[in-house]
Fold this protein.
Amino acid sequence: MVAKKTGFFVGAVAGAGVAAAALAGVGLRMSPADAAPPPAVIKTASTGPMMFAPPPGAPMSFADIFERVSPAVVSIDVSTRVDARSLRFPGLPFNFGPPGRNEDRNTPPGGERGGGSEEGGEGVRPRQQSSGSGFFISADGFIVTNNHVVSGADEITVTLKDGRELKATVVGLDENTDLAVIKVQGTGFTFVSFETAAKPRVGDWVIAVGNPFGLGGTATAGIVSAYGRNLNDDSSQFVDYLQIDAPINRGNSGGPTFDLFGRVIGVNSAIFSPTGGSVGIGFAIPADTADGITKQLIANGKVVRGYIGAQIQNFTPEMADALDLKGTKGAVVAQVTPGGPADKAGLLRDDIVLSVNGVAIDSSTALTRQVARVGAGENLRLEIIRGGKKRFIDIRSGVRPSNQQLADVTGGSGDDEVEGKDSKPQKAAPARVNVLGMALIPLDAAARTRYSIAADVKGVVVESVRGDSDAADKGLAQGIVITSVNLKPVSTAADLTAAVEAAKKAGRPTVLLGFANRRGQTGVVPVKVE
């Protein structure tokens, strides 16, 4: 699994091309001592001696690149106060090291690095140490790193290649892309800059430089493995991750990844690992994304993104088949925030968004990114499908709230949980209708009370779901209300049954069910016709 702060993920990638024109367009130079060795000789029984040399373009050494760029890369040590109660297990006379705030830490087993509580006083919180990497992007001390490296830090110490230790302060943090900018006092620092024009191909060489396991300036080499990786976390709404196989480990977070010309192409941010160490799959924030974010952080201390106030889902091929819209790509509106920009503009639940300001939308992530790129107060023109017809809606963008504020508004994420039947005596059981593997009952007063369903929700209630049904696989469960079928409101189970029969006659393999769960969340899900 992939995770940046917990589990098995360790952040680590960076992006900053070399500043001053020193490296621009300069290839790798070899000294006589580094000249290519004579070709290796392989003997085979059938052909005899066979001569071969490294393939064209493969460097014999990365030493020149590392020598030029490494002075701009720094090690970052972070000190954070933690709750002493988190360090003690009930019934044991000694303390354990606290659970990690992020994965880049060097705490020895059985205790916190640095000796634990300061002065040992009652109520004094002990310090916990962690480490990461970063790199200068200006001569006057601005440094790029990861948000998860420095977020919540009480004290930040930056160590340069020449051994100097400098105190740093936070300039700005962006949790959505896991980027941060910190600053040290001074001038004349060697720095690099983001390369936003040149883009390496999959298979091109890259070099990751950083502070793995607190060892200081370390270089590893590999290739670009892939573009457009989704880590299935909040940051993936805003970052198309670059995948590399240059080994990156704990402590590499926030360090840069360079191409063969010494240009920074990414900021190391995460690895995929079942062990906590490198298994050859790392992820970097691309330089073009990092460049725009860090400029905003330096200018304003924060990143402001556009916001329309709508929860959205991918409009999948199954959904398109259910609505006889084969080949249509987009995002479907699952819920509209009351009083938000989308609500005021007239966007409705179940609207299918095809484009934003003329840019085609092929997923919910694409919609989020397009909206986020627009400044607050600017206009967003959405092309949508409603009731089978295309139309346009203009929305005046708001300011995107923090992730915590959004979670408070939406009530968290995740599908409705399956709960056991109410143990209280019930009145005569309402008539049940079985369809699509679900037992449906009317949404009467008893059902509203039993499943805590809001008064404004209309539809039919799922009383049970057959375990081997597609409805169960799609997450429909007891207590969920089916509110629509193929984007048309449902009042009774007969409405749903009729829609299923119509789909069968038309040869469509699925129907699109709208739902509302007990957390107040709404959405749509395609369910196979049985």
About this structure: The first strand starts at residue 12 and ends at 14. The chain has ten helices and 32 strands.
